[in-house]
């Protein structure tokens, strides 16, 4: 990968457009990027990273403040990078997401992130010549061409300050975290986790199977009615013995139940015979008693027969008498109706109620004819009444129409003034609505700053708490470390006795090799075992992990506090928020009246036209009402002159006609009632004669005798039932006495059923109890046999599961660095150790050349101190002394050389591992200001070697001496309005 040019616009501290020509800067293979602290040197490296991956290294990516604060509002933030990767030249253009002021109105709007990739040369196979514009497609294409992720690129191309010096001196855990990011060995961690999860899953399954087997053992014991083995040592012999005992108990219970059943059957036969004899005696006694009762009731039966015969002869007399009674009731009603008709006729004004029938008929015809004549004038009376009502309404309508005209004229005069006032209010509300967006944006900005100020105290408190936790974690780790060292020393003191305890006669001593052991060392008081030492080491490791967590939490809290302080650095007056809130509330209230006022103006404008139209219509309506009123008044007056003679002394014609009709109806009703009464009187006399003749025909001297002998239907039914019942009882008793099975039975014999029943109950109780015992024995035996079969099958299936789990557990321990794994290296650590060994080889070649053959890296896979995991050790071999020493003992210049060699070696291995492109451009931001003059000479010699092979190296530093040594420089100038770039050759 080789960079050609970089162009940044409104990015970081650069408000305008700045261009970096890497072809010009890298013509000599080495160039310097320098400037004041905070001028924006590292920002150029961030721009390269952002153009490639859309994000910047480290914590700067979390801040998400890529846009320049000094840039013009119309200038878009953008980064352009042109580079060549794997022989293909391409141009990348990216813009971040940020908030920008609206072009119209007040407030801000979001500028969306964008990206594009354009092929300057021919694209690789499978890519379109037109390039890409989707952000995700651009990112995937860049990673595919480079062959590495953003994190890997940040480590192997943009060498950050102090990063590899820290990696050189890091412990196993920190080095493991970085290597895992670079080589993406997460899949091996997934393999370790898969084994652990698999073991846990199989362990749970095995425990569940074991628990299931133990539950079956308990169920077998429960089914057998015995206690399960206390030591859980149930086996096949215990199970066979239990099944055998239950089978014997079942056989014994079956024989006992059979004997009890035979005895119960015999007792039941005796009980049946006794019941049959007692039943025949009872039936014989009951039949004789029933026949005697029927003979005693014979006189009563004759009386019932005589009463029934007389009642049947009196039926015709009763029927005829009922007809006479009904006619008498009807005659009474007709007489009463005649009296009521006389009263009604007198009320209607007709007093000759005793006149004969011909007079009444003539008077009825006359009244009817008079009513017909009055009917012809009813329509005129009805029309007259409607006309008077209409005339009254017209008078009211005249007054209402005149009042409406007056009101409309008054409204039309007052309307222009109301319209002007409403238009003025609408103008004020519209102006307030236009100011709302700006006030809301300012309120949001002040509210956010107030919220940040509130968070500032919490962030400071969080930093204090994190510092306290960190101090506590450091103390705890130091105590755990001291305790671990003490335990290790005590174990070493007793190591001779520990080795002696493992010796056996004839075995060679691991120390001296002798097979004779005349004086074995004895354990001293307070000796420490290997398990105790391992426990102390584990406690120390836990304390170290907690210390690391506390350090990370402290760094995060400090970073959060710093970010808050930077965002609040400008400073705003907190009282301004209340003023803005008050002004916003007043403006919002005024703006809320805009739509109602606009609607009011429209309504008033419409109202003006409507009132004019309504006024014209009201005047026309008033003239029409007055014309109709005059015409209707004349018509009413003429009709009234015709109706007054016809109504006479009554209020109107209708009332007089109703009176005439009422009189005619009363006379007609009197004629009808009098005729009906006379007809019913004649019919009653004829019916009374018929009743007397019917009594004589039925054999009664008087009608009263016949009515006394009559009975109602219910009594006749009772007589029939009682006579028939008595006859049936006698016949049934005689039939029972004639049955063959009662012949020879003595009715005086007594049968003892209680004794036979007691004997049968006792026999049945014994039989039921024995059967219950048998059923329980059968059930228990069947349950135990079924459960025993399941238990044997479960035992058979459990054995291979236990063997498989033991094998899986052992393999999981090995994969995770435990058990038979003597190096205590997990699979992931083993892979990382292999990668680190490759890095050490590649870095040693560079370090040896840089140090003139003195130093080289040595990879160690030995376990760490206090039994910690090994495999990631990295030391330095000093060829002058021939000894291996820790990297921490190197001097400042030597550490820089080692760090740089390690970074370059790591870059080569990562590129080879990922299949990425050759890295022809490298940036070093390594803190040159910490080097002395001699060390700086060594560094410059090393940098000259780095340029060999066509590689371009860019140094980022503000050290003055480097400016004199490197002719091609890119200077960053810092000003109040933003930074600028300047090339010095």
UniProtKB/TrEMBL annotation:
InterPro entries for this protein: AAA+_ATPase, P-loop_NTPase, Rad50/SbcC_AAA, Sigma_54_int_dom_ATP-bd_1
GO annotation terms (biological process): double-strand break repair
Gene source species: Kibdelosporangium aridum
One Pfam family from the record: SbcC_Walker_B
Family the UniProt entry places it in: Belongs to the SMC family. SbcC subfamily.
SUPFAM superfamilies: P-loop containing nucleoside triphosphate hydrolases
Protein name: Nuclease SbcCD subunit C
Domain of life: Bacteria
Compositionally biased region (Polar residues): 108-119
Lineage: Bacteria, Bacillati, Actinomycetota, Actinomycetes, Pseudonocardiales
GO MF annotations, alphabetized: ATP hydrolysis activity; exonuclease activity
Keyword line: Coiled coil, Exonuclease, Hydrolase, Nuclease
Claim: Isomerase is one of the keywords in the record: no
Residue span of region Disordered: 99-120
């Amino acid at each position: 990968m080789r960079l050609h040019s970089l162009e940044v616009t409104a990015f970081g501290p650069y408000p305008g457009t700045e261009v970096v020509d890497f072809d010009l800067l890298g013509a000599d293979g080495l160039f310097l990027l320098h400037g004041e602290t905070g001028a924006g040197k590292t920002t150029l490296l961030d721009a390269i990273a952002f153009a490639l991956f859309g994000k910047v290294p480290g914590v700067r990516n979390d801040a998400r403040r890529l846009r320049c604060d000094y840039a013009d509002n119309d200038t878009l933030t953008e980064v352009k990078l042109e580079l060549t990767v794997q022989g293909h030249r391409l141009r990348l253009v990216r813009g971040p997401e940020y908030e920008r002021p609206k072009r119209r109105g007040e407030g801000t709007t979001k500028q969306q992130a964008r990206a594009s990739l354009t092929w300057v040369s021919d694209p690789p196979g499978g890519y379109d010549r037109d390039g890409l514009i989707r952000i995700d497609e651009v990112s995937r294409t860049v990673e595919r061409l480079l062959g590495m992720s953003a994190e890997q690129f940040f480590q192997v191309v943009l060498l950050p300050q102090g990063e590899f010096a820290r990696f050189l001196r890091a412990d196993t855990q920190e080095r493991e975290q970085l290597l895992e990011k670079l080589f993406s060995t997460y899949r091996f961690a997934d393999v370790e986790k898969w084994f652990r999860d698999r073991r846990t899953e199989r362990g749970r399954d095995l425990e569940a199977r074991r628990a299931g087997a133990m539950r079956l053992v308990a169920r077998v014991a429960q089914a057998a009615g015995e206690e399960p083995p206390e030591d859980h040592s149930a086996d096949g012999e215990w199970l066979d013995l239990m099944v055998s005992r239950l089978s014997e108990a079942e056989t014994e219970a079956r024989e006992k139940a059979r004997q009890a059943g035979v005895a119960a059957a015999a007792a039941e036969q005796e009980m049946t015979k006794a019941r049959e004899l007692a039943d025949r005696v009872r039936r014989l006694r009951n039949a004789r008693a029933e026949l005697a009762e029927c003979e005693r009731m014979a006189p009563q039966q004759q009386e019932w027969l005589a009463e029934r015969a007389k009642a049947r002869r009196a039926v015709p007399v009763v029927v005829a008498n009922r007809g006479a009674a009904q006619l008498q009731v009807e005659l009474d009603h007709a007489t009463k109706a005649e009296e009521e008709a006389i009263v009604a006729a007198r009320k209607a004004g007709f007093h000759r109620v005793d006149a004969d029938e011909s007079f009444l008929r003539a008077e009825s015809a006359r009244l009817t004819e008079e009513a017909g004549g009055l009917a012809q004038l009813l329509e005129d009376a009805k029309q007259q009444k409607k006309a008077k009502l209409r005339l009254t309404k017209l008078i009211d309508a005249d007054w209402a129409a005149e009042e409406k005209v007056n009101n409309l004229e008054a409204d039309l005069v007052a309307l222009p003034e109301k319209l002007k006032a409403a238009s003025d209010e609408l103008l004020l509300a519209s102006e307030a609505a236009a100011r709302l967006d700006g006030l809301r944006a300012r309120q949001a900005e002040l509210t956010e700053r107030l919220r940040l100020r509130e968070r500032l105290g919490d962030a400071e408190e969080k930093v204090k708490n994190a510092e306290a936790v960190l101090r506590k974690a450091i103390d705890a780790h130091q105590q755990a470390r001291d305790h671990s060292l003490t335990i290790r020393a005590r174990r070493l003191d007793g190591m001779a006795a520990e080795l002696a305890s493992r010796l056996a006669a004839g075995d060679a001593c691991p120390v001296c090799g002798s097979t004779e052991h005349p004086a074995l060392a004895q354990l001293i008081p307070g000796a420490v075992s290997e398990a105790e030492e391992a426990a102390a080491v584990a406690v120390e490791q836990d304390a170290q992990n907690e210390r690391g967590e506390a350090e990370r939490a402290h760094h995060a809290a400090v970073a959060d506090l710093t970010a808050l302080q930077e965002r609040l650095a400008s400073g705003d007056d907190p009282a301004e928020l209340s003023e803005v809130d008050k002004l916003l509330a007043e403006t919002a209230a005024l703006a809320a009246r805009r739509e109602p006022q606009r609607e009011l103006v429209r309504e008033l404008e419409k109202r003006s036209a409507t009132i004019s139209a309504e006024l014209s219509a009201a005047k026309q309506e008033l003239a029409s009402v007055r014309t109709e009123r005059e015409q209707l008044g004349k018509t009413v007056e003429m009709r009234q002159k015709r109706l007054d003679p016809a109504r006479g002394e009554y209020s109107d014609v209708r009332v007089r006609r109703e009176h005439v009709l009422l009189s005619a109806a009363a006379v007609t009703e009197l004629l009808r009632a009098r005729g009906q009464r006379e007809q019913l009187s004649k019919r009653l006399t004829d019916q009374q004669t018929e009743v007397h003749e019917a009594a004589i025909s039925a054999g009664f001297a008087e009608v009263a005798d016949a009515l006394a002998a009559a009975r109602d239907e219910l009594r006749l039914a009772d007589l029939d039932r009682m006579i028939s019942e008595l006859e049936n009882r006698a016949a049934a008793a005689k039939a029972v006495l004639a049955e063959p099975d009662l012949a020879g039975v003595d009715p005086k014999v007594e049968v003892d059923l209680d004794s036979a029943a007691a004997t049968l109950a006792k026999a049945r109780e014994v039989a039921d109890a024995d059967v219950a015992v048998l059923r329980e024995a059968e059930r228990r035996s069947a349950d135990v046999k079924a459960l025993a079969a399941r238990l044997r099958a479960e035992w058979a299936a459990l054995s291979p599961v236990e063997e498989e789990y033991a094998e899986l557990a052992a393999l999981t321990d090995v994969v995770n660095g435990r058990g038979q794994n003597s190096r205590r290296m997990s699979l992931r650590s083993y892979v990382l150790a292999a990668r680190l060994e490759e890095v050490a080889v590649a870095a040693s070649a560079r370090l040896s050349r840089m140090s003139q053959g003195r130093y080289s890296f040595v990879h160690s896979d030995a376990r760490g101190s206090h039994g910690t995991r090994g495999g990631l050790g990295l030391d330095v071999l000093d060829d002058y002394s021939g000894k291996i020493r820790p990297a921490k003992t190197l001097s400042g210049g030597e550490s820089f050389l080692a760090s740089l060699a390690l970074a370059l070696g790591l870059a080569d291995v990562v590129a080879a591992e990922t299949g990425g492109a050759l890295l022809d451009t490298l940036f070093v931001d390594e803190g040159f200001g910490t080097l002395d003059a001699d060390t700086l000479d060594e560094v410059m010699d090393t940098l000259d070697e780095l340029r060999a092979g066509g590689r371009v190296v860019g140094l980022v530093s503000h050290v003055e001496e480097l400016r004199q040594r490197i002719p091609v420089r890119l200077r960053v100038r810092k000003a109040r309005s933003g930074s600028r770039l300047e090339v010095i050759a």
